[in-house]
UniProtKB/TrEMBL annotation:
PANTHER family the UniProt entry points to: POLYKETIDE CYCLASE/DEHYDRASE AND LIPID TRANSPORT SUPERFAMILY PROTEIN, POLYKETIDE CYCLASE_DEHYDRASE AND LIPID TRANSPORT SUPERFAMILY PROTEIN
Domain Coenzyme Q-binding protein COQ10 START: from-to ranges: 11-128
Domain of life: Bacteria
Protein's name according to its UniProt entry: SRPBCC family protein
Organism per entry: Microbacterium stercoris
Annotated Gene3D superfamilies: 3.30.530.20
Membrane-crossing segments per the record: none
Length: 163
């Protein structure tokens, strides 16, 4: 059985800044609670170390679709099934400043009783909301992204922004 979570948050920053920061996967441990490390292997492949319910796990995930300032979709390539999509929606704040709605959707196959219960009780969605709040705080306090990648990925095939 697959578990799905969704979460969203408004970030007081332009869509390009928010998107660029999200492409800095190695910074995820700063704001994603379960993530211990992410290593960028190449433009589409990442290696993850996470701790879920006190259990350490490692897996590879590939970006399957990515369009700058719009969305990033990924899927695990080994271990338990895990996939997700984050969307970036530009909006104008009521005071005229740029704002971005970040919409997260993740799906996975629970491994063990803790993950199954967590999904059933929506604990995972609450954790995702907290993670997005930490991301919001990280980017808003910095006032700028730590880097960015502007290439596109379609069907796990990278298209360099220079081409």
């Amino acid at each position: 059985m697959t578990t799905t979570l969704t979460a969203e948050i408004d970030v007081n920053a332009p869509v390009s800044t928010v998107y660029n920061q999200w492409t800095q996967f190695e910074s995820f441990p700063h704001y994603l609670g379960a993530v211990k490390s992410v290593t960028q292997v190449d433009d589409v492949r990442t290696h993850w170390k996470v701790s879920i319910g006190g259990r350490e796990e490692e897996f590879f995930a590939d970006i399957v679709d990515q369009v700058p300032d719009d969305h990033i979709s990924w899927q695990s390539t080994d271990g338990a099934f895990h996939a997700g999509r984050v969307e970036f929606v530009p909006r104008a704040h009521e005071d005229g400043h740029a704002e971005t709605l970040v919409k997260l959707r993740m799906e996975w196959e629970p491994q063990g009783i803790l993950e199954t219960i967590g999904g059933a009780l929506n604990i995972d969605s609450a954790q995702a909301k907290k993670d997005l709040e930490r991301f919001k705080k990280f980017i808003e306090e910095r006032g700028a992204e730590t880097g960015g990648w502007r290439g596109e990925v379609h069907g796990r095939e990278e298209t360099s922004p220079d081409l």
